[in-house]
Amino acid sequence: MGEAMGRVTVVGSLNMDLVARAPRLPKPGETLAGHAFAQVAGGKGGNQAVAAARLGAQVAMIGCVGDDSNGATLKRSLEAEGIDCSALATSASAPTGVALIIVDDASQNAIVIVAGSNAEVTPASVEAQEGLLARADVIVCQLETPTDTVRAALAAGRRLQRTTILNPAPAARKLPPDWFPLIDYLIPNELEAATLSGVAIDTPEDARRAAQALKAKGVRNVIVTLGAQGVLALLDGEDEAGVHMPSPRVEAVDTTAAGDTFIGGFAAELARGSAVRDAIAFGQRAAAIAVTREGAQPSIPHRSEISA
Ligand code: RIB
Fold first, then answer.
1. What is the CATH number of the domain that holds 132?
2. Ligand 1 center–CA 14 separation, angstroms
3. pTM of the predicted model, to two decimals?
4. Any catalytic annotation for residue 260?
5. Does 61 fall in a domain?
6. Distance between CA 79 and CA 132 in Å, rounded?
7. pLDDT tens-digit profile of 1-38?
8. What atom of ligand 1 comes closest to residue 256's alpha carbon?
9. Mean of pLDDT values over 150-178
10. Domain range holding 56?
11. Which of 104, 137, 184, 260 is catalytic?
């Protein structure tokens, strides 16, 4: 690997994560005693930006925090990673986004997000950052900001001939058909791929069918992340059957932000000019480290920790 750094611009959410650890996830109406609590920087956009920065890219963040202590903390933590926050707005009225996260002893999580200031990342605020978008090798979006905003970012990326990545998370419904041709890499997890494609996913073979259904809608590449089962990638110009790439085997303690780490690492590696399969493998090695650590941004490794 050379030393050249690519540029990644992330359009997305920033949340303060309030994380409780409990023996298991509570049932409806149940109160459970937890055994640990932590407040850490998170949000899918912020996590992916931090991952891309720690894993080797120059990163800019387009987003919005509230005018409150959570917002100040999140902005400071991005700046500490060397991330360009010139396009990070501060809302005068909405509080910073929060995520309530429960992690159980089997390392599974359940998350409720309250968008707050993330809902104020508007299409106009993205379009005003044409310079940051044009300078990016790779533009990364998720679905924790308004849908019109995500579409505007993808459309700008296509117009400016930048590589676009959409992590369709959280995916509560199907995407509008006119989005698909704007996406170079669609990277859902198995739940999101099932929601978007209508194909139930239990195995890599199911993921292959879901990816094929999504690629048929006009996306250039589909990469379905399958947790411990690895990823199923259906890549432009390659075998239509796709490739299943297993994950490194590790003992997981907290899977929060594992997908974000994969995406940030993949984006950073793609931006510096690596081949797509190499970028996938790099993202997988980074995510395998993240799951062995607690929390969202605190769990994300640095490039020096990733084995060649
Ligand atoms: O992907 C993990 C993230 O989802 C958490 O950091 C939380 O903020 C939610 O956005």
1. 3.40.1190.20
2. 8
3. 0.97
4. yes
5. yes
6. 16
7. 446 899 999 999 999 999 999 999 999 999 999 999 99
8. 2
9. 95
10. 7-12+44-93+117-305
11. 260
